Each structure stands twice: as C-alpha cells, then as structure tokens.
Amino acid sequence: MLRFDLISIFPEYLAPLKLSLLGKAQEKGVISINVHDLRDQTTDAHHSVDDTPYGGGAGMVMSAVVWGDAIDQVSKNSSNVDLVILTPAGKKFDQRMAEQFSKSQQIIFACGRYEGIDARVGKYYRQQKNFRVHEVSIGDYVLGGGEVAAMVIIEATARLIPGVLGNPESLKEESHSLATDSSESLVEYPNYTKPASWRGLDVPEILLSGNHGEIAKWRRAESERRTQELETE
C-alpha cells in the first residue's frame, strides 16, 4: 500500500482528498493519505514557522528547524521515502513522474508557503540513505502554496495504482499514456456518446460503423493530430 503524507500549515485545505476515487481507495485500504499540521512541531507561543531571509529581500522563509522535525516525525521507522518539495523552481511534473511515484512506498509532500522552505531541508534529506528528494512544480506559474500542487500529484499518481480505478483498462487509452514507445506521449482521441446528432453536430461515422480495426486507426490518427496541434500552438 502506498502511503501519502502531506505536511501543511493549512491541513483543512486538503479535505478534498477524502472524496471520490481517492476516498474510496482509502476505504478499501488500497492507499493511505495522512495530513499533518506543520504548526504541531512549533515550540513558541505564536507557533511560528517562518522568519526573515538571510541576505535580505521580500517575504518570509519557512524554517528548516520546524520542517526537519515534522519530516522526521512523519518518516519515523520508514526505510524508503520519497520527499516531494513543492516549488515553482522544481522539475515539471508529468505522467512519467506519476508512474514512478506510483511504485513508491511512502511519499511525503512538503507544502511550502511564503518564499518557500529553507534550502537546507532538501540538502539534508538528500544525504539520508532512506530518502529520495524531488523538487517538483506542476507548471510555469506561482501558487499561494503547495497544497493544490500536492493534490494534483496525488490524484495523478494514485489512479495508476491497481485497485484505485473501477476499470483499469481505461488507463491504457488516456492522454499521455497511449504510446507503446515510452519516448512518445500522445493526448487522448476525442470521445462521444449518445445522441449521435446534437445541435447540428454529428458523431464521426467511423465510430458508428462497428469496424473496430478502422476505429482503432481513426483514434490513433486523431491522437497524433491533437498532439501535433498542441505542440504548434
């Protein structure tokens, strides 16, 4: 069972992780999702988690002391941990990364805020034999914190774990998972359902033909067309 642990100063922000497929997967014991309040590791009256940056500059930086204590607590007795530090400066998350994460034993998400987490946190845990550290971004933009990004990564990762989806066959034809060559990534072909005609727009005749060989060819061609259009936009 893959265990997800999220550390945040806004644990209530992560309530949607109890819903839909993720909620059902937790009920079945396929995955485990645990949310931890970073402020539980503070020792001062104000529950401070940040301080001014060395060298000056705007904003506040989250404390290595508090984060270290929190990560130590969550990873206690764990021999194989992926630590994901959410940051706009990180490596772009994609389907291949989701596939890699789906094979993990425990993933800890450090949901930073403000100007980010003291850089020594990532450096320290990279030196620990039982940790793999990943600095990850979900896009070329800045969010208020890492909570939304963590939820995106968890949903993309968890659905690849056997037992999470009701019909695992659907994974084979999804966007970014179509190609048999791992170096090639295609988006999914367009899908249609009843009625066959709607507001003057008809379902492509090939999909009504019952010729599954020709339908497969059409779908492949449409996937390639849509992928090429995205690449040229």
Entry summary:
The chain is α/β, with parallel strands linked by helices and 233 residues long.
Q: Could you report the average pLDDT, rounded to the nearest whole number? A: 92
Strand order of the largest sheet: 2-1-6-5-7
How much helix, percentage-wise, in residues?
25-40%
Uncertain residue ranges? 178-182
Radius of gyration: 22 Å
**CA(first)-CA(last) distance:** 40 Å
How many helices? The count is: 6
SSE run: EHEEEHEHEHEHEEH
Q: What features would you highlight for this structure?
A:
single chain; 233 residues; alpha/beta; 5-stranded parallel β-sheet; two-stranded antiparallel ribbon; 9 strands; elongated
How is this structure best described in words?
- This protein has 233 residues and is of the alpha/beta class.
- The protein is 28% helix and 20% strand.
- It has helices spanning 20-27, 64-74, 95-101, 120-126, 147-158, 212-232; strands at residues 2-8, 31-37, 50-51, 61-62, 81-92, 106-110, 131-137, 197-198, 201-202.
- Strand 1, helix 1 (20-27) and strand 2 (31-37) form a beta-alpha-beta unit.
- The longest helix has 21 residues, at 212-232.
- Mean pLDDT is 92; it is low at 178-182.
